[in-house]
Amino acid sequence: MKYFYLILLFVVTLVSCKKDSKQEDEGDVAFIGGELINPTSSYVILSKGKEVLDTISLTDKNRFTYKISNMEPGLYTFHHGVELQMVLLEPNDSIMFRLNTMEFDESLVFTGKGAKKNNYLINLFLNSEIEEKAILGFSQLSAVLFEDKLDSIRDSKLAKLQIFSAKQTTSSLFKELVEANINYDYYLSKEVYPFVNYTYTEREILESLPEDFYSYRGQLNYNENNLQDYFSYYSFLKHHFENMALAEHFKRSKDNIFNRQSLDYSLIKLNLIDSLMKNEDIKNSLL
Fold this sequence. Notes:
Elements: H1 2-23, E1 30-37, E2 43-48, E3 51-57, E4 63-68, E5 74-80, E6 83-89, E7 94-100, E8 109-113, H2 115-138, H3 143-167, H4 172-196, H5 202-208, H6 231-252, H7 263-276, H8 280-286
Parallel strand pairs: 1-7
Antiparallel strand pairs: 1-4, 2-3, 2-5, 5-6, 7-8
Helix pairs in contact: 2-4, 3-4, 4-6, 6-7
């Protein structure tokens, strides 16, 4: 009988512990923290999308740590002063970063669990900034040669992603974001080509493009919710609608040169955005 009471007491205690554990369940959790050199204010702001999660004060050593409970995997944004940068957070990540506000993006380095994927993303972003200057030079080439140059850049990036993924354990979300970054940078360069090639008028350039130059448009997703805060995706959409509106405008007018102040052009663009975009946040920003 004594042993029966001991067993009963153990079971009651175990059930009670489980109940307390459920009450304190915080769902998926991630940690983020950092150190800021030359801070311009005494706090950082952490947000996801348009939702501000918290304003976090810096310590006297200009550091902070923050725990995200019931977290949703995806891109988070930390703001400091007028600067901002994104970080990919997934369950059980524990990421620390160090940056100098004098060179905000260039000095940013992540450490901890989840750091490698974020260092990969920031390096991809910084390299894209360098590539933009080279691509601007390519933009004066014919459409065929320009496309060859772009294809080479994209193929190189995708190959590097394969090598990284083979060495590191990566999530499907990480791969989706990197591929989106690579592809939308590629698409963006094609969309702005008629506007930055100065050898002919915009009408002449559009009419001379190969038939399959914009073939990727058939597979576009205009409502990538996971990418709505991603600069590459938003920038692509902005120029994409400009380009499509201009092509349609040229069908209706005798203009040869892009006139941003044209009422007809502006109405076409507004109607395209309104008809194709379903994500209200992205749609309203574009409108």
